[in-house]
Amino acid sequence: MKFKYLFILLLPAIVFASEGEAHEGTDIMARSVNFIIFAGILYYLIADKIKAFFKGRTNQIASQLTNIQEQLNSAKKAKEDALSGVKEADEKAKELVELAQKEAVLLEEKIAKDAQSEISHLEKAFEERMQIEEKKMSKEVVSEVIDTLFAEGKIKLSNDDFLNIIKKKVA
Predict the structure, then answer these.
(1) If 0-12 CB within 10 Å is exposed, 13-18 middle and 19+ buried, where does residue 8 land?
(2) What pTM was computed for the model?
């Protein structure tokens, strides 16, 4: 097989070989035929390899474009998912803010109610304490005045008068 190719390759050289005589014309025709034969042989030998190379390169570029398209689609989907996630997060944040505001109002009302109840309880305790202290002071003043009057001997009361006073006090 290689001999055949070698023969075909050398055939133009054999056919157009000259004896060294000077020709008046040019050998452009012979050279053109030689070039065409050479180009044909070269095409015959490497055409399949060149076609395979370019076909492989085309397939490689097509697969790269397919991969890029898939990556682009997945990136778009991820972007849409992220945007929907952000939208959901915003809605949840708004709901949480509204819930927190409602809870704050309820807590404020409860604290105000508890504070009012505590204030009224403290006022009542203060009033009771004031009444107890007033009674205590009045007893002390009465006791002091009575002790002073009896100690100086300014008031002379009989046993009947004491019994009347005690009866009035008890009744």
Answers:
(1) middle
(2) 0.40
* Among 38, 46, 45, CA closest to 10: 38
Task: Give 9's contacts (C-beta < 8 A, 6+ positions apart).
Answer: 38, 41
- Along the 171 residues of the chain, how does pLDDT read in single tens digits? 676 776 777 777 766 665 555 555 678 888 899 999 999 898 889 989 989 999 999 999 999 999 999 999 999 999 999 999 999 999 999 999 999 999 999 999 999 999 999 999 999 999 999 999 888 888 887 777 777 766 766 666 667 776 777 777 665
Q: How far apart are CA 9 and CA 22, in angstroms?
A: 26
41, 9 Cβ separation under 8 angstroms: yes
DSSP letter at 157 equals -
CA distance 40 to 146: 152
State the Cα–Cα distance between residues 73 and 133, nearest whole angstrom.
87
